[in-house]
Amino acid sequence: MTTADHAPKILVIDDDDDLRYSLKRVLSGRNYQVLEAASGEEGLEMAQKHKVQVILLDNRMKGMSGMEALQHLRGINPNAMIILMTAYGTTQTTIEAMKFGAFDYIMKPFDLKKILALTESALSASNDLDRANTKGGEQAVSQEDIEGGIIGSSAAMQAVFKMIGQVAASDVTVMVTGESGTGKELIARAIYQNSLRSQKPYIAVNCAAIPENLIESELFGHEKGSFTGATSQRIGKFELCDTGTIFLDEIGDMALSTQTKILRALQEGEIQRVGSSDTIKVNVRMLAATNKPLEEMVKEKTFREDLYYRLNVVRIELPALRERMDDVPQLIDFMLKRLARDSKADTKSISPEALALLSKYAWPGNVRELENLIYRSAVMAQGETILIKDLPQEVIRAVGANPLPAEMASQSQVSAEDDTNVVNEQTELQADAELNTAVVGAPTSNHFDVAYDQLRADVGTNILEHMEREMIARALEESGGKQVKAAEIVGMTRATLRKRIDQYDLGK
Ligand SMILES: Nc1ncnc2c1ncn2[C@@H]1O[C@H](COP(=O)(O)OP(=O)(O)OP(=O)(O)O)[C@@H](O)[C@H]1O
Ligand SMILES: [Mg+2]
Predict the structure, then answer these.
(1) pTM
(2) Which residue has the CA at smallest separation from atom 23 of ligand 1?
(3) Residue ranges per domain, the chain?
(4) Fold of 9-127
């Protein structure tokens, strides 16, 4: 294919030859002119020589990292749209990439269609280029990163991280909203930690926790004798926080009179201590959060409309956990590791079955609920692995699963008398019949849905055999090798059990 000289130029910087090759193939197919570089250093050279519109940049390369290259590339050609490709998305990478002026960010492995679409939108952005108000990439983040653990690879969370990167460096007021337990506090802190004010004070005020008659003094301070109990002068949070960032949490729970004062601080940049007529200039950046429906409150006149618009300059809406269930495994992994670190114990794991069950739960309390559940279950688990039986009954019931595998076996209709139905001779028909009694005959089928999906994914076919072998092995383990007991647990006669032990080679 010939590529005309005016064809858009795309530079691929990646040390993975195969990936460069595939990208080149698909992009050339679109009549783009593709340039390749196998390292960050080489990429910078190419970017100096050629006027490229789009750069696909790998983050993890030998030598200069993608993030480093990104900053240089922005200097060399501020108009090039850079898409950062990285093997796994830590929060910080996304935030930083956006801060340093990347156009977008994609996680490997990606599908080529996706990168093509992204490249196209980068190209069109580059065509009607107006980056006058590009977010500056001037300030490097302090290395005490925010890794304070914000987990989220889901598209919804990635969008949140991008937004943090975009707003952090300006002094714009940000309102973080979302259901309880979605991580609003965490996000507010991340904005601060990535801001130009990160070395300045950060004060979080929980507006719901401070009684109405005290909040004003808390925020703005008071003079000695200004009210009963004001035995000395007090400096308020706004003053303490001068040049820094103040986070007003649970802002929907603030009295109207306090709202008026906050508005003034926001609008005029000045405050008055209670009992004083002097105004004090303060320079604070405000972040706010609430799980209350502020729009409705504005309609009902319980929240000032002017303050609402003032705070709601940029809005970051956090998704509920049920809207980003693909993050659940990663969150659990993170929580288990943190728990192990904090309790100086070995990291526990979670069984695929328990994980599958948790992936069906709706999480009304969001990440906080998940966190509490994992801590509780880890305590309940006797071994190294959290099993379904260690999960809270409410959760098991809520997803409609059957609590215990042992119960599952005894409740199924498989008769102990069908001793002669030798499994290794079983026809498909028999398999169907057994499946039916086991699944349809059980009080709830969700437990089986979970098990079935999991086995299909892990084992592929012959799942009954696999499950039977597994169940018998576990029963033997539980019974300490006593066959009578094991037979009782799985619901077989001892003779059948013995056959199976031979068949599955469980007799050690
Ligand atoms: N993305 C996340 N990754 C890791 N932990 C998270 C995440 N989101 C929330 N958490 C954890 O969940 C808990 C609740 O988060 P946070 O306190 O920020 O919620 P919130 O939205 O402020 O809730 P509320 O409205 O009830 O105040 C915290 O312990 C926090 O560390
Ligand atoms: Mg909160």
Answers:
(1) 0.61
(2) 181
(3) 9-127, 170-317, 323-398, 415-503
(4) Rossmann fold (3.40.50)
